[in-house]
Amino acid sequence: MLTDATREKLKHVSTATLATALFKRGLRRQYLQDVHPLRFKGDNMVGPAYTLRYMPAREDLNPISVFQDRAHPQRKAVEECPPGAVMVIDSRRDARAASAGSILVTRLMVRGCAGIVTDGGFRDSPEIADLALPSYHHRPSAPTNLTIHQAIDINVPIGCGDAPVFPGDIVVGDGEGVIVIPAHLADEIADEATEMTAFEDFVTEKVREGRSILGLYPPTDEQSKIDFADWRARTGR
Amino acid sequence: MLTDATREKLKHVSTATLATALFKRGLRRQYLQDVHPLRFKGDNMVGPAYTLRYMPAREDLNPISVFQDRAHPQRKAVEECPPGAVMVIDSRRDARAASAGSILVTRLMVRGCAGIVTDGGFRDSPEIADLALPSYHHRPSAPTNLTIHQAIDINVPIGCGDAPVFPGDIVVGDGEGVIVIPAHLADEIADEATEMTAFEDFVTEKVREGRSILGLYPPTDEQSKIDFADWRARTGR
Amino acid sequence: MLTDATREKLKHVSTATLATALFKRGLRRQYLQDVHPLRFKGDNMVGPAYTLRYMPAREDLNPISVFQDRAHPQRKAVEECPPGAVMVIDSRRDARAASAGSILVTRLMVRGCAGIVTDGGFRDSPEIADLALPSYHHRPSAPTNLTIHQAIDINVPIGCGDAPVFPGDIVVGDGEGVIVIPAHLADEIADEATEMTAFEDFVTEKVREGRSILGLYPPTDEQSKIDFADWRARTGR
Amino acid sequence: MLTDATREKLKHVSTATLATALFKRGLRRQYLQDVHPLRFKGDNMVGPAYTLRYMPAREDLNPISVFQDRAHPQRKAVEECPPGAVMVIDSRRDARAASAGSILVTRLMVRGCAGIVTDGGFRDSPEIADLALPSYHHRPSAPTNLTIHQAIDINVPIGCGDAPVFPGDIVVGDGEGVIVIPAHLADEIADEATEMTAFEDFVTEKVREGRSILGLYPPTDEQSKIDFADWRARTGR
Amino acid sequence: MLTDATREKLKHVSTATLATALFKRGLRRQYLQDVHPLRFKGDNMVGPAYTLRYMPAREDLNPISVFQDRAHPQRKAVEECPPGAVMVIDSRRDARAASAGSILVTRLMVRGCAGIVTDGGFRDSPEIADLALPSYHHRPSAPTNLTIHQAIDINVPIGCGDAPVFPGDIVVGDGEGVIVIPAHLADEIADEATEMTAFEDFVTEKVREGRSILGLYPPTDEQSKIDFADWRARTGR
Amino acid sequence: MLTDATREKLKHVSTATLATALFKRGLRRQYLQDVHPLRFKGDNMVGPAYTLRYMPAREDLNPISVFQDRAHPQRKAVEECPPGAVMVIDSRRDARAASAGSILVTRLMVRGCAGIVTDGGFRDSPEIADLALPSYHHRPSAPTNLTIHQAIDINVPIGCGDAPVFPGDIVVGDGEGVIVIPAHLADEIADEATEMTAFEDFVTEKVREGRSILGLYPPTDEQSKIDFADWRARTGR
């Protein structure tokens, strides 16, 4: 369960900081490789993962008429992805055809979903970039998904960008990319990353003022710890 | 022959819509893979393909002095590419050296060509991005083309971005990428894509208003068809 | 030694022009492949290379605590890279984890360094893109460098983006990418590129006016040489 | 259902001939890309697919102790793959760690399975190559599968070597590689490939005797058809 | 023109030695990358290049029936490749479908051609490996060439394995791979490589006897030159 | 220090078993990716690493004449690599030119070295495959190393096949590939792997006799442990 408090905290930390917090726990592969924001609008994407798995398309099973089936997994997923959730698509890192297009992504947005991520590509990418919904992919790709992808499973564990994604894991996207936090760690990672962010903001301020990183980052000098305590007191963080 | 009517229609449809129209005819590889606009300026690139084929450069045949030959295929192509045509370069998907630079691209622009595409990279890419001429490549690449490419053939069938390109095929580029329409299909594809675009615009409007995609996209509900007819009547499309 | 005069000249020529000047001397691999500016701000990056070599990280040698060591090569390098120099990192073209983050890059900026380059990726890339310091990488990458990289050597000859980089080589970055000039050639390359740039500017002007590139670029027509001489006289270049 | 008759026919045709028979039906992606026999022993592998899906391993879920769980999908699959079936593993084309090792493959062999295929790699590959069981992979890979793979699903539709594989599809391997025949087509494809093989054997004999391929392959000359009829009568095929 | 004397010499030198002789002349890209012998039988492949160019297949132009056309470039090439020549196919380094199969390769063999090379893959590769004709490819590939390739040009300059190949260039294959010698250099390269081979054989003998490579390879010690002269006198080479 | 006892033990365990022993200690990247034996002759390669680092070649620094310098790092390394050691070359996973050829490898063999490994390719690979010295590379590559590599450092920490290699680490190669054991762990890993190998041999015997892997591998059934104890007593292992 993603609490409002944790969601709020995760809105204000970076994927880089989260990656370090996960690294400290031995989790080194939670960042999605080669997945980029279509256009970052300043607010982090945060939500539990709702997954969609694609397999290679067999031509006879994937004529354009398959979408007339209301139970087609891609269409079903778009209607059932819970509000607040992030749809994460396993496209086998293959962007030669689209994972989805602007109409489906618009529907997700209208339905109140928190974002959409694929390790393939989106079509209508300029329109998707304009939407308020956060979206992440590898690169634009105009061909319909049927060209090489067949949607086969909803809400099963998948890989995306070489990272493991389990339904319900907490997905966070910023201007850099996307990271996946195992569900049971979300609260503690959010707390730790918030603390780390305060410290990093303090360090950045000091570095801008001309201080060396030695003894400051990490704060191996006692004075650095004292200064940080002062800074927190002063800034209220 | 690209008629003015077809050119005009193709100005107002997306490569994604065109890809679907081609997919319905069994053509799945007409979209150029890994080829991106240098900077999209809002108007589609449309024109018949005029092709240039590169082979790997042999060092002794490619000193800088080759450009003193007025018959050098790259320079010849730049002077002979017809106004209204799109120059498409087969760079064997290799962007380690440039396919062309800003001076040649400027010349194409001044001569009234419709655009330039390579599956390699351009040099002087910031300057080319500033030009009015639509341009598409894989990534910026400063080294002169002689470093790894030798221009060898003009206006022969080529591959570009893993797509087949025959001279005279109709090339369309938008903010997403580039697609190639076999010449004999251009008129019917332009018509069909125009119809599809009207429907997609209608669907997008309905989805934004909150309607589900089920029964609407595709319009398996009778009501969707009625609503679309109304919309067309109302909007004049 | 990078003289002020040469630095100034290199501020006003492009990596494409430099690549051609190096090509004429048989140097075909000085451009860094797949390395892009985070955000180009209009001024070329110019400075001698100060290098940092990464090797694959062995997990037991790379816990987060290594940064408590003031002699850690990455941190040492950030404090010792000379003002005016460009830090060039050999990340083995592997961007699965970061080469550095915004705090270290800020420190380099405050210390007066001229720029930072990696053939991997930076974390905190949106923040780094905002800094005044020129920065170049392959793609954003949030994971801490310890995830796959171990900093092992400072200021040794390295590869970066498949180009050879010796400490002291002159590194130039523009809106396109980064090129490395062997130290002993810097002055003559800067001179030659400045001359070439004047000629290219002249040619661009003529092409914009409608002149053919044949006989003009290169200037095999005698008239082209005369016109260029006139242009130089007129423009004072 | 794979009948004995069809199994027998598929024992004596090549993946190349099968690929052509599938191509004629519009199926172009049934051959597994980059998957090779460890050591072909002269008999085709034939059997229905029993699939195993791997996802990227999350470190905390994949300590060495997971194999103590008798329900671990990899171990369960090895005990439950039906005799006569071919185990096909979706390793996401990632051979950086093993898909399985010699003990599990030996168990499959003893249990009467027909073969094992992965688009990753096997460990203990020299021992596996020595086994009577046909085996196919991309390349040898010593690290335990836990290093990067987590077995997650048994007998679901998967991708393998970029080909779609549904449980029950008929998998055929020869000295060249592996191809997948959709279950409902197995009988007719086996028949057609058997006919094609007879013709190809005839053609090969004629070509060896010095005949041109023109008019013979395909048999556009009437005489070629007559000669083939004679050959069939004479050879009893 | 490939003389008998040069052909004979090239039968007895390695692609490695030839690569060095070409390197000395500034030719660094004549070795075909990622192209391997199907099964080397001890005799070098030597012959002038007869080229075949493939482009990406457009589905509507490549039904199985195209081979009924006697003028189909692939079939035509197989019947017209001159005896003694090596057929070199530009498959754009794409082995997802075959470049040719055993029947065509058998026909080339029977017609007296010297070998066949592709930077893609062959189908029926076990049968081709058994033929007396030398053959080189990237990897086995069962799908018919129509799946992704369309034969489009005969005997034009091409790229193969990233090397430039002009019709008539001399192609040499050994147990390692394939190299291309520009036609006008064939005689002198054959002579030089023959001399180099004698010296390398001498050096190998000395190294096996325990001598250091320093001063011997290259022969910077005067004694090495004397010993080599003795060795030549003694061995008659 | 590699003791005789440890060397002997490592002669009789597989890289797969060693990978698992290292995995248990959190070391997941010690296996060299994409590195294969030229021809395995039945005996493991075992020895401490002696490293050689290559950087991208700058053309002016790498004419053929560089080998006249006795201090050239490649030649020096071949004369100084200690008997019993394994030369490991960091070729940046680039096999477009050779890492070394048969003469140098023969010299290493004669000098009593234990083997040679590169993550690039060897030239004269058929001759090297015939030598008694164990050798491992990615693929054959005829061009001289000067074409793209410059030997720059001897016995520094390197990457090879994406694995970290420190001078003195223990390198083991078998019929599958190569793995690197951190020096300080060599004795305990050799002991543990020897124990594991005994158990795996026992398991293999039981599986061949028809026993299920469940409860046996790992031995979660008490009976499995008893049977193994009996087997050890009986076989003296």
Question: Topology of this protein?
Answer:
The structure is a homohexamer of 237-residue chains.
Chain A: H1 4-11, H2 15-24, E1 36-37, E2 45-56, H3 73-80, E3 86-90, E4 98-100, H4 102-110, E5 115-118, E6 121-122, H5 125-130, E7 135-137, E8 149-154, E9 158-160, E10 163-165, E11 170-173, E12 178-181, H6 186-208, H7 222-235
Parallel strand pairs in A: 2-3, 3-5, 4-6, 5-7
Antiparallel strand pairs in A: 1-7, 2-8, 2-11, 9-10, 11-12
Binding site for substrate (chains A, B, C, D, E, F): 101-104, 123
Keywords (chains A, B, C, D, E, F): Magnesium, Metal-binding
Binding site for Mg(2+) (chains A, B, C, D, E, F): 124
How do you describe this structure in short?
Chain A has 237 residues and is α/β, with parallel strands linked by helices. In chain A, 33% of the residues lie in helices and 22% in strands. Chain A is built from seven helices and twelve strands.
